[in-house]
Amino acid sequence: MMTMSEKLQIPEEKYYIDRRTGEKHEEPLYCEATLRFLYGSSKIGKPLGELLAKFSVFSRLIGWWYRRSWTRKRIRPFIVSQKIDMTDFEKPVESYPSFDAFFIRSLKKGSRPLANGMIIPADGRYLFYQDLSVCDQFTMKGNTFSLKKLIGNDSLAHHYIHGSMVVARLAPGDYHRLHFPCDCIPGPSRLINGLAYPVHPAAVIQNMIVLTENKRMITELKTDHHGTILFIEIGATAVSSIHQTYQPGKDYKKGEEKGYFSFGGSSLILLFEKGSIRLASDVLSHSAQHIETLCLMGQPLEEPM
Which H/E stretch holds residue 261? Predict the structure, then answer.
């Protein structure tokens, strides 16, 4: 069985492509020194990192801490270090009572126009896979990414084995509210308890197996034109909670809020049945080169019909 350090190799440099400009940018890693200590070669850090991933009390304590009023002083330095554009958001910086309140900030109305067709459901760095049955990117050190393990249901996984997958990695500086990608009727969310590995660039690019081991919630979205979509929220180290704000069984329009992540990095996976969607070619092209694309909520997820 792989150790944490084998699963999570921290890269010296990590780049992504900004979809709006086409430019390549180096990504600043939040708490990089801590990540390298816990998941690098340190004889003390490695076993400590394993313990932190296995016991959720660590993430709950961090969540409690960042809901305290004294954490407000961290907000402005964080905005600067993560280069966050505050003009997109509903409230001014000084109005947030804690760092976590800032972390789950809401968008300003009209700041994200919705594209035609299926839309990007959350800000993040994306990888697109049109046909999972021909992908070879998901094997590392003899361990294979498993849809059955990700979904926790063999018969349900069978419906998506030849389908398409969208993976979004939300960095700490990103907007952390999640939205429906199309008109749909969502079912209840199903919790799969798991570990709390960190979700940094290496976890998604180098070894997606990590995403099948973390705590996650799965929601089936019934749609008129795209079959049944699986919407999977995945927690990570320091993500104290995955919150659902929608009502199961209710009709929702694309762009309406589904939920949000509390403090920490996190990930999102969308699974589509075979032939139900043609994913956007620009992100597919970057993904084929193992390069993530920074996309914003509301941008197009599929090719125009």
Answer: strand 257-261
169: closest CA among 229, 230, 125?
125
Q: What is the pTM of this model?
A: 0.84
Rg (CA), the chain: 18
**Which residue in 189, 266, 267, 287 is the catalytic one?**
266
Domains of the chain by residue range? 25-295
- Please write the tens of the pLDDT for every residue from 113-141: 999 999 999 999 999 999 988 765 554 34
- pLDDT, one tens digit per residue, over 162-173 is 999 999 988 888
Are 181 and 193 within 8 A, CB to CB? no
Report the candidate in 243, 80, 101 with the shortest Cα–Cα distance to residue 173: 80
Does residue 85 carry a catalytic annotation?
no
Asked about 266 being catalytic, the answer comes back as yes
Catalytic residue among 59, 100, 123, 174: 123
